[in-house]
Amino acid sequence: MVKCLLLQQIINGLSLGSVYALIAVGFALVFSILKFSNFSHGSVIMLSAYLGLWFSNNFNVGLLPTLLVCILGGGTLAVIIEKIGFKPIRDKEGPLIYLFVVSIAISMFLQYLMTALLGGRFFIYKPLLKTSAWRVAGLTIPVVNLAMLGASVIALAILLYVLYRTTIGIAIRAASTDLFTPNLLGINIDLVVSVTFFISGALAGISGLFLGMSLNVYPQLGGLVMKAFIATVIGGLGSLGGAVIASFMLGLLETMITAYIGGAVTPMVSFAVMILFLLFKPEGVAGLLGLSSGTTTQKL
Amino acid sequence: MKNEQGTILHVDNVTMRFGGVVAVNGANIRLRRGRLAGIIGPNGAGKTTMFNLISGVYTPVEGEIRFKDQAITGKSPDEITHLGISRTFQNIRLFEGLNVYDNVKMAASCRSEYSFLEAILGLPKVWKLEREVASEVEYYLDLVGLSGYEKVWPENLAYGLQRKLEIARALASKPELLLLDEPAAGLNPTEVQELMEIIRHIHKELDITILLIEHHMDMVMSICEELWVMNFGAVIANGDPESVQQDPEVLKAYLGS
């Protein structure tokens, strides 16, 4: 029984970690080319959760069509935020801190906008999956957790393919060294930035849907971007591989602590780990594993 | 202004100011197609600023730049690259997250015309273009003597090889005009000799126009067919290396008398 419970927690921890990984990778992608922590990423998650809810309720469709809408919606939203909020600052070559502050302001604005429009209450997805839980050998595994894990792994695999095998992916990686040189080699930087935001938003859209399904939808849902922030710091800022590994570690750690010690302690431990990494291993998991070449390891 | 036969680049009365500093002052350059030419001048003469103006990093405050009889003043760097100008940098700027192969591929595939969606779906058209790009990358790496280094990270290459990689990368966008900003800076005498051979070879083999900025006078005098001398932002002399060497203005600029 104890073993079963542990196994169940591990599966839950991995699926939580996989959503953190989706958010963290989107967050780290933008960081790697524009060098700022984009907190408006949280509002893309939150709005995608509302979008998915509205779409699945109104059109009475299942998981896959809703997922597709969330991917496209999240990506589009992130591009719109970039064009309105960040591009004008980039064009004027404003300091990075402006981008950072604007991203926080946008996230706050959208959170309060949704509160004003729909109130602070929780909205609940109608069941998008036929079964809610699988019972196997004494284990109870929520199917949404498995779907979350599966979708995240597939999304990350596609991302890896795009970044390493396609022209636009190589351009994104080139742009993480600096934006000036690729431009002089014939690359349209605005296009690279837009595609990066689209990918980042699409990943946020996937996580928004699954977070909405498992935690319900409310204006503060985007606050979970903080977990991704912790994961990117622990992973080593700017390193995608590090962010993914750190996300799974964080998911497991949080699930274990919640199960065996108590939920009240969990966030405290997560932040404590982040502080310890910054103090003693600022290059993060990526630095520990020697993952740094591949993406930039520029510091904040 | 009337076009002279075979002129690939016109720089007409171009001026660039940064605040109160005049970096380039009413400069004129007429570069003939197929030339291997150079810009020389003391430090701070405005040579790199001239390259930055031609490649679209800056827009001149006065004057006009035309490439193949088309005004390029005010165009963005990527548009200018697509028209056929590419360059290297005084301080090497390679992509550290990409290996040698991908550094060159980056520039080569800018011309590949397929969309993001097509690339993700892996359509046959994409594969065909990718194969073409692959053979081009190998060709340019071979041209500068970097075959066999494909998988190496650029930061692990010796300095001289990084310079060569930058040239291969610039060539991969298939320029008609190649701008080399101090290609021999930081190289030892043997490497400078080798570089001269490579530049001559590229010039002949690819039949392109090359404009370079250089401080190594031996190199400039032996490979360039035509020179422009800049001082305090102005072009003070133009001609073949021999005549430029004897120009009183040039002697004054260099000897400071």
What does this structure look like?
The complex is a heterodimer of chains A (300) and B (257). Chain A is mainly α. Chain A has one domain (2-132, 142-289): ABC transporter involved in vitamin B12 uptake, BtuC. Chain A is built from twelve helices and two strands; from the N terminus they run H-H-H-H-E-E-H-H-H-H-H-H-H-H. Chain A has helices spanning 2-34, 41-59, 63-91, 96-118, 143-165, 167-175, 180-184, 189-215, 225-235, 240-260, 266-280, 284-289, and strands spanning 133-136, 139-142. Chain A has a two-stranded antiparallel ribbon. In chain A, helix 5 (143-165) crosses helix 6 (167-175), helix 6 crosses helix 8 and helix 9 runs parallel beside helix 11 (266-280). In chain B, helix 3 packs parallel to helix 6 (159-172) and helix 5 packs across helix 6. Chain B contains ten helices and ten strands. Chain B is of the alpha/beta class and 257 residues long. Chain B has a six-stranded mixed β-sheet, with helices on both faces. In chain B, strands 2-1-4-5 form a four-stranded antiparallel β-sheet, covered by helices on one side. Chain B has helices spanning 47-54, 77-83, 100-108, 116-121, 124-143, 159-172, 189-206, 217-223, 241-246, 248-255; strands at residues 7-18, 21-32, 36-40, 62-67, 70-71, 85-87, 177-181, 209-213, 226-231, 234-239. Chain A binds chain B through residues 158, 161-162, 166-168, 170-171, 173-174, 176-178, 180-189, 195, 293-296, and chain B through 55-57, 76-78, 81-82, 86-87, 89, 93-98, 102-103, 105-107, 109-112, 114, 116, 119-120, 153, 155, 169-170, 173.
Structure summarized in a few sentences:
With 300 residues, chain A is mainly alpha-helical. Chain A has helices at residues 2-34, 41-59, 63-91, 96-118, 143-165, 167-175, 180-184, 189-215, 225-235, 240-260, 266-280, 284-289, and strands spanning 133-136, 139-142. Helix content of chain A is 74%, strand content 3%.
